Every structure is written in structure tokens, then in C-alpha cells.
Amino acid sequence: MNKEVDARGMNCPLPVIHTKKALESIDDGRITTIVDNEVAKENVAKLAKSMNLKVDIKQDLGNYYIDIFKDSGMEIIGIETLDIQKTSNNSKDLVILISTDKFGEGSEELGKLLMKSYVYALTEVMPQPTALIFLNSGVKLTIKDSEVIDHIRTLESRGVEVLSCGTCLDYYKIKDQLAVGGISNMYTIVEKLNNAGNTIKL
Questions:
Q1: Which of 91, 154, 173, 191 stands the most exposed, by the fewest C-beta atoms within 10 Å?
Q2: Residue 86 domain-assigned (yes or no)
Q3: Are residues 102 and 191 in the same domain?
Q4: Which range of residues forms the domain containing residue 161?
Q5: Is 35 a member of any domain?
Q6: Known Pfam families for this protein (predicted)?
Q7: In a structure prediction context, what are the per-residue pLDDT tens digits for the chain, which is 202 residues long?
């Protein structure tokens, strides 16, 4: 079976995620992913190679056509399996502390775009965290007008605990807009962090 994934104009990590889903939907055949930038081309190619799949790339009129071949007789290495093998000792009780509504320093617009991509990517990879804790301006991600609210709800529906700092919600005067998870306090947050097997701070 052959399928085409048109990922032109999509921001990271969507080309990789859509390609991965297409590969999972077939037992054998070819997936052709079309992208329009070098970074997306490299990321999709790395995905295929990490899964032990043959890749052929062609360029035409500014677009990249990435053919990925899947054979039912091949030994396929799943990307989730790779991630679990690399982090199996550290992924237990993973808590992610998000203290800002944007990712990294520099452009605020870019930072918010990167945060949106990051939270979406969390819904697509394994293992998933046991808890997300939102502090300072990070609590703005958990209110009803947040661009990532649906992704956080998806994580919560899968058993990820979602906590927002009550003091922070009060400071920004948005407690009544909280749309996902529960309100927490610093004592509980410190306990969660101290007892976590691994933590990531953004």
C-alpha cells in the first residue's frame, strides 16, 4: 500500500508525527512525505532511519519528496521503543515543571510557537510524564483561551496529573479561567518534585 503525506507548510513536529502515523497504518508499502524546507526533510529522514527503514529523497521545485519503504518482512524498530530504551531508568515518575508560557529566550512570538509545538509533541511520544506542573506565567497555558488547552486535556485524559500554582493564578487574576487540571500549592509542588524519579524544567 502506498500513501502520501503532504506536510508542506507544517511546523515542527507535525511532518514527523504525520509521517509516523502513516507508517503505523500500513504493514508494507511506501509512504511519500512532501515537505518544503530542509529542516523538515532532515527530521523525517531521521525518523525513518531510526525505524530501520529505507529512505529515498528527491527535490523538485523547492519541495522535498521523501519516499520511505516499509516491508512486512523487515525488523522494524519503533520510535517509542527507542525512546524507552534510552530513558527506561529515568522515565519513572517523570514530572515536567513549566514556569513560562513560551519556550526559550529571544523572540516572544517564536517562544510561544515552540511551546505550542512542545506540548503537542508530548501527546505523541512515549513515555509520557506522570505530572505537569505549571508555575508563574506557565499557568496561562491552562486557562480556557490557551492555544494548547486541548493538548493538555488529552494528556490529562491519559492519566497525566495537571497542577497549576494557585498563587500564580491569583497573581495574574485568571483563577476563574482555569480550564484543565487542579489548583495546587507550593508544599504539594515541592513534594511532587522531590519524589519524582526525573524532572524537566522549562
A1: 173
A2: no
A3: yes
A4: 94-201
A5: yes
A6: DsrE (PF02635), TusA (PF01206)
A7: 889 999 998 877 788 888 988 998 888 899 999 999 887 888 888 888 888 889 999 999 989 999 999 886 555 444 443 343 333 333 468 999 999 999 888 888 999 999 998 999 898 888 889 999 999 999 999 999 999 999 999 999 989 999 999 889 989 999 999 999 988 888 778 888 888 888 889 8
Sequence-separated (6 or more) residues with CB below 8 Å from residue 65:
32, 33, 34, 57, 58, 59
Name the nearest CA neighbour of 82 among 129, 122, 48.
Answer: 48
Count of helices and strands (H, E) across the chain = 7, 9
Of 158, 153, 162, the closest CA to residue 181 belongs to: 162
- Rg of the chain on CA atoms, in Å: 19
For residue 8, give the C-alpha cell.
508542506
User: Where on the phi/psi map is residue 88: left (φ > 0), alpha (ψ -120 to 50), or beta?
Assistant: alpha
- pTM, whole model, 2 decimals? 0.63
- Going by their DSSP bridges, the two strands 2-6 and 182-184 should be labelled as unpaired
Domain membership flag for residue 156: yes
Collapsing DSSP to helix, strand or coil, 31 comes out as: strand
Name the 3-class secondary structure at 36. coil
Q: Give the ranges where 59-185 is alpha helix by DSSP (H).
A: 79-87, 108-122, 149-157, 166-171
69, 80, 65, 70: CA torsion to nearest 10: 10
Question: CA 137, 140, 146, 149: dihedral to nearest 10 degrees?
Answer: 110
Domain count for the chain, please give it: 2
